[in-house]
Specification:
The protein has 257 residues and is mostly helical. It contains eleven helices and no strands. Helix 6 packs across helix 11 and helix 9 packs parallel to helix 11. It starts with a helix and ends with a helix.
């Protein structure tokens, strides 16, 4: 990236450069000759990132308020408009990411199911088979046509997603003598692996841990939640799966390179 900007200005110009002004801002303006538009574009891009971060933390704050004040079973009654808006925003993001294609339609089905699973798990601490298993089969069916990944990658992702958390579950139970997560979490990660392939599984698990830690700390610090009360892991898997759907390949490439 630095080489790109270095090539914008010749280090050996044909004519001698004019004398530099003595004022500080005039000096900066003169030194920025030839790259001013790029600096302006970077400034606007940085401002846009700042606005996005502010909106993201605003959404996280709203989620924390929902979790602390509103029972998930009453969310549809009390926050129906916000939930419909959330579904519409995710659908628009799917169209933006995949275009007006069958892939975008499949992504909407995945995202809307993840929304439902998120609030069901918050309310009941359960991820129903009536949603997780059809979601798994829908991902494999979508990848029969390689909408997201080849079918072989999807099948391996489903198997690896289930077995990875199954192994963690039994290791935790053998060491601590109690259950650390439910079987629905295995099936949800298997479904995400079936949709996005085994390559996305480490990223999904990492992202779910980070999101869970952030929201858990916000609930404890700002809402006074008892830290001894277990948090459902499924919602954070769902949020991580949505992030991986939109940005997973780019995040993996960024990490590897």
């Amino acid at each position: 990236m630095f080489r790109y900007f270095e090539n914008l200005v010749s280090p050996y110009p044909d004519t001698a450069p004019p004398p530099l002004p003595h004022g500080f801002f005039a000096f900066l303006w003169a030194c920025a000759r030839g790259v001013r538009r790029y600096i302006a574009a970077m400034t606007l891009f940085t401002a846009a990132i700042g606005v996005f971060e502010a909106l993201l933390f605003s959404v996280l704050g709203r989620v924390v308020d929902w979790l602390a004040k509103v029972q998930p079973s009453r969310l549809w009654t009390e926050q129906r408009g916000h939930l419909i808006l959330l579904g519409a925003i995710l659908a628009a993001c799917a169209v933006w990411r995949f275009g007006w294609t069958l892939q975008a339609l499949a992504a909407c089905i995945l995202l809307w199911t993840l929304i439902a699973l998120t609030f069901i798990d918050f309310d009941t601490q359960l991820l129903p088979d009536d949603l997780t298993l059809p979601l798994l089969w829908a991902g494999l069916a979508a990848n029969l046509f390689e909408l997201f990944v080849p079918l072989q990658t999807a099948v391996i992702g489903a198997i690896a997603g289930y077995l990875s958390l199954w192994i963690v579950y039994w290791l935790f139970k053998l060491i601590r003598g109690k259950e650390g997560m439910g079987f629905g979490d295995f099936k949800l990660l298997a479904a995400l692996g079936g949709w996005m392939g085994w390559q996305m599984l480490p990223l999904i698990v990492l992202l779910s841990s980070v999101v869970g830690a952030v929201i858990g700390l916000l609930l404890i610090v700002f809402k006074g939640r008892d830290h001894s009360i277990p948090l459902a892991f499924g919602p954070y898997l769902a949020i991580a799966g949505a992030i991986a759907l939109f940005f997973g390949p780019a995040l993996v490439r960024m990490y590897l390179h």
